[in-house]
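Bumping with the actual sequence this time:
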Amino acid sequence: MVSITELVGRNRQAVERLLGKAQASSIVKTNSLLDWTKAYYQSGEIEIIYIDNIADWIILHSKAEETIEELISFLGLNMHQGNLQYYGTIQYSNIHGLKEVTIFGNNVGNIETIFIKVFTKESE
């Protein structure tokens, strides 16, 4: 299991030493001067958007159960089904050096996706 904290702010080469080569990747064209690279790891469980070659947005999908549990523990959060079942989305700003962490739940209260913005807040 790879700790998400080991991926934060790393370049693609460092990330791929930890996660292995991306199964798929694409260039995302934006209105800004920078194009972003989106890469998928561990059978799509982890999605990383590299902005200026740095792992800036990290998306965890529910299949990455251990990785999600490790991140929740690192953030010092106590998640349980009721939190997500009735609210659907929980968002934290400026938590443990991360710009934003958004946790998306499903209708039975399980975590489906965690979206982490490390440095860049707004999409361009």
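The tokens above came from a reply further down the thread. The chain has three helices and seven strands.
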